[in-house]
């Protein structure tokens, strides 16, 4: 069941399915590791709920919820599904 990164529960492992948005925005997210097939995890949120602390490709990033909402993910069914 696909969802967005912004609605993924904290700590849940997921796999990137699609990145939407303008070309430059998508390119930047791809450069950071948000490529379809890569595993991603939302670790925490700032005290006011924005930005999110996200882990992808072994690195941690802060993403605004609006940005995370443009990343479609599917929950990983097992640790073996991680890339």
Can you characterise this structure?
There is one protein chain. The chain is of the alpha+beta class and 83 residues long. The protein has a single domain, classed as SH3 type barrels (Roll), CATH 2.30.30.90. The chain contains 2 helices and 6 strands, in the order ββαβββαβ. Strands 1-6-2-3-4-5 form a 6-stranded antiparallel β-sheet. The longest helix is centred in the first third of the chain and has 10 residues. The two termini are 18 Å apart. The C terminus is likely disordered.
Helices and strands in order, then pairings?
Layout: E1 3-4, E2 13-19, H1 23-32, E3 39-45, E4 52-56, E5 59-63, H2 65-68, E6 71-75
Which features would summarize this protein structure in a list?
SH3 type barrels; 6 strands; disordered C terminus; alpha+beta; six-stranded antiparallel β-sheet; 83 residues; globular; 2 helices
